Amino acid sequence: MMSVIDALDVSADTVAKLVATLALLILFVLIRFLTCALAKRKLDDPVRFHHWRRVIVNTLTIVALVLIGRVWIHAFDSLATFLGLASAGLAVAMHDSIANVAGWVFILWRKPFKPGDRIQVGGIKGDVIDLRLFQFSVIEVGNWVDADQSTGRIVHIPNSQILREPVSNYETGFQYIWHEIPVLITFESDWRKAKDLLGTIASEKAEHLSEGAKEQIRRAAMRYLIFFKNLTPIVYTTVKESGVMLTLRYIVKPRERRNSEEAIWEAILDAFGQHEDISLAYPTTRFYQAETNPPAGHCK
């Protein structure tokens, strides 16, 4: 009876290499399971466990790829032949996968972000929670949810996207952003008094948020061209169609932006409510009716 190997027309050497590859994969899975289980027992902090789990998985993946590569290289006459055939085949059949691996290497090498950072890649913004060979995952922020708060969705992004899309990191290098609150008041309001009130509120509610920013700028300036002369809150004045626009600008950490804005708006509403000569503006329509009877002595 013809054996399975003869029926498939596969050489015994190729079968041996397939068996060796399967054995290496099983060994890789087993070692990964045991090392991760040991790390979970030793580490109580979920953040540290997640970090070491990624280190273990990434290291074992590289070792497994090297060992499997050494098994199959001997099936060809030379390393050059193997690399030529492999690169040609992989370039056609696994273009996206290769790009994802290249993105993974770039992330590990250049470190544009790390787990825990808040980033934006293209139109997707979120907090990085996982990094793998072909993709990384974020907890989505924004979208239909107002301000910088989580939607609850996990978004998986191919690693190749960081080579094709702009990557914004909210926390690496300089962990603060500038935030602005526009306050529109009517033309009839006392805008100077309103501006003074906003300045007082900014000093009370926002000035402490910039603590530590100067030191971070000093450190960041050694690597990036970051210079801010004034970090204290400031109020700018401009005129819009519906009234006078007073824009309160202050520096804050990204994750504190919504809470700080809430506290400032509540203080603004309380302060403006105590002054009858200050009113918030909103879209209005005014009608003017011409006099039907001309005044006495008026000639038509």
Please identify the top-level CATH class of the largest domain: Alpha Beta
Order of helices and strands: HHHHHEEEEEEHHEEH
Strand tally is 8
Taking the alpha carbons of the first and last residues, their distance comes to 122 Å
Instruction: List low-pLDDT spans.
Output: none
DSSP summary: helix tally: 8
The percent range for strand residues is 15-25%
Find the CATH topology of the largest domain. Answer: Alpha-Beta Plaits
Shape: elongated
Structural class: alpha+beta
Number of domains: 3
Q: Supply Rg.
A: 32 Å
**What's the rounded overall pLDDT mean?**
80
Q: Roughly what percent helix? A: 40-55%
Task: Give the biggest beta sheet.
Answer: 5 strands, antiparallel
What does this structure look like?
It contains eight helices and eight strands. Helix 2 packs antiparallel against helix 3 and helix 6 packs across helix 8. With 300 residues, the chain is of the alpha+beta class. It is elongated, with a radius of gyration of 32 Å. The longest helix is centred in the first third of the chain and has 31 residues. The strands form two sheets. A five-stranded antiparallel β-sheet has the order 4-3-2-1-5. Strands 6-8-7 form a three-stranded antiparallel β-sheet. The mean pLDDT is 80. It folds into three domains: 90 residues, no CATH class; 52 residues; 97 residues, Alpha-Beta Plaits (2-Layer Sandwich), CATH 3.30.70.100.
List keywords for this structure.
three-stranded antiparallel β-sheet, 3 domains, alpha+beta, 8 helices, Alpha-Beta Plaits
